[in-house]
Structures are given as C-alpha cells and as structure tokens.
Design goal:
The chain is an alpha/beta fold. It contains nine helices and seven strands; from the N terminus they run E-H-E-H-E-H-E-H-E-H-E-H-H-E-H-H.
Length: 276
C-alpha cells in the first residue's frame, strides 16, 4: 500500500510535479492551494493517472479551513504519513524601501503557513507514533542574498522552526526535514522582481541582480527534476535534516560551511553581478 502524503501549494511548479509523481508511484495525495483554476487542472490530471487524491481550494492563512481540511483528510484516508509544507511567496526589494505591511504577509504565508499545517497534523502522527514533516526552505535560509532580506528572513525562520520542533516530536516517532532549493525554472522569481523606482540609490545594483538572476534561471533545474529529488526525500524513512535539489544550493552551502565570510561575500557579490 502506498503512503498518504499532504502537500500545500501544489497547483503548479514543484508541488504539482511532486503530486503527479507520487500518484504515479501508487501513493495517495491530499493537498490544497489558493489557485482554484489550477487545482481543477491538477485534479483532472490525477484522475487520469488514477489512485486516491483529495484536493481543495484553500488559502494557507485560513486557520479554521486548514483544520477542516485536516479532518476531511483523516476521515477519508485514516492517517497521514508525510506532510510537505510547500506553499510560499517570494519578496524582493531594497530593505530601506520595503513595505513592512506586505512583508508581514510574506511571514504570515511562509512561516505561519508552515506552522499551521504542521500543527494540524502533529496530533494524529503523535498518536500513531509515526510521520514526517518536511518544509520547503531555500538556499537563502542559510546564505542570505541582497535585496531578498524579507524572504531570506522567512526562510531563516523556517530553518529555526523545523530544527526546534524536531527535538519535541522525535520521541513520538515524528521525523523532520528541510528542502533547500536555490533556483528552479519556474515563474516564482519573475512574479516578485521589480526594479526600484527612478531616484532609488539601489536601482542600478538591483537591476543588475535581476538581470543576472534572469540569466541564471535559463539553465536552472526544472520543476520535474527538482520534484524527483523531493519525492526521494518524502519516501525516505529517515531523511537527512537538510536536502538540496540543485547544484547551486549545494555549492553555495558548501562554501558557506567552509570558507571565511569575506571570501564567501566576494563570491556571492561577483556571482550576482552586484559588486560595487
């Protein structure tokens, strides 16, 4: 019998590819996304693949909705083996010019969204004394990039959240893992990249950063390729705490662990073409 796996933010990109791969391997998928149109497209694709699935259109900030989703999933499937917190939004801009109300929304979705879905399913996993909670973090959760201060802060928070929770739930047989992609060829970055307005002291360097990022994305890991590695983590009985899905994240995390900060900074600024 396959596993029962919950995925948030699965209407497109890596989440969608993961859901389809799991269905093809005989696992049952339950999940939600705020994008109702793409949820319906995925529903039809999963119907064609076969196997059991339960999908909802739901906003990650709807706390009561998440609890209702949990109840329906447990009623239909009886248990959940793994939860992948995949939902998240990006945030780009010079910190001095950041709209802090918009930044708060980024924290609400990226950090408290993961918290809400994990908190919802921990009780049943604790009772079963088995389960995995896996969070989608990022390279910038350990290696902060300029102009991504808010997004990076949310991913640093995810890293701390998971590493703290693991000590609490380990006695109940619940395992935790973090996935740290750098660049995947989706529209994720394009949705947030905006050049600062004329007159901004950060405009020229931010534009160089965006241009360089657009260049790098052309050769980035595809969602399907990243999904294969994510599925491997989901299906592993004892996953590593930190897991990468592309060369860039593996490379920069290696540098982060082994090089002096001054050299790391020089490599990063040159890599993103923003050296002063």
């Amino acid at each position: 019998m396959g596993e029962i796996i919950v995925i948030t933010g699965l209407a497109e990109g890596m989440g969608k590819e993961v859901a389809k791969m799991l269905a093809e391997s005989g696992d049952s998928v339950a999940g939600f996304d705020v994008d109702g149109q793409n949820i319906e497209i995925l529903r039809k694709e999963l119907d064609a693949i076969g196997g059991k699935h339960y999908l909802e259109t739901l906003d990650i900030t709807d706390r009561k909705g998440i609890l209702g989703f949990r109840d329906k999933v447990l009623e239909q499937f009886g248990r959940v083996d793994t939860v992948l917190s995949n939902v998240g939004i990006g945030f780009f801009g010079p910190f001095e010019e950041v709209d802090l109300e918009a930044a708060l929304k980024c924290f609400e979705i990226n950090v408290f969204g993961a918290s809400a879905i994990f908190q919802a399913f921990i009780p049943s996993m604790r009772e079963n004394r088995k389960g995995k909670l896996i969070a989608m973090s990022s390279l910038v959760g350990q290696v902060p990039f300029p102009f991504e201060s808010i997004y990076s802060a949310t991913k640093f928070a995810i890293e701390g959240l998971v590493q703290s929770i693991q000590y609490e739930v380990k006695p109940f047989g619940i395992k935790m893992a973090i996935i740290q992609p750098a660049q995947v060829s989706t529209s994720f970055a394009a949705k947030i990249h905006k050049v600062p307005p004329e007159g901004s002291p950060y405009r020229e360097r931010a534009k160089r950063f965006i241009d360089r990022d657009n260049e790098l994305i052309k050769d980035a890991t595809t969602p399907a390729s990243a999904a294969k590695k994510i599925v491997k983590v989901l299906k592993t009985d004892n996953p590593k705490l930190h897991n990468q899905v592309d060369f860039m994240s593996t490379f920069f995390l290696f540098l982060n662990r082994n090089l002096p900060k001054s050299i790391r900074d020089m490599i990063l600024l040159n890599h993103m073409d923003i050296k002063v």
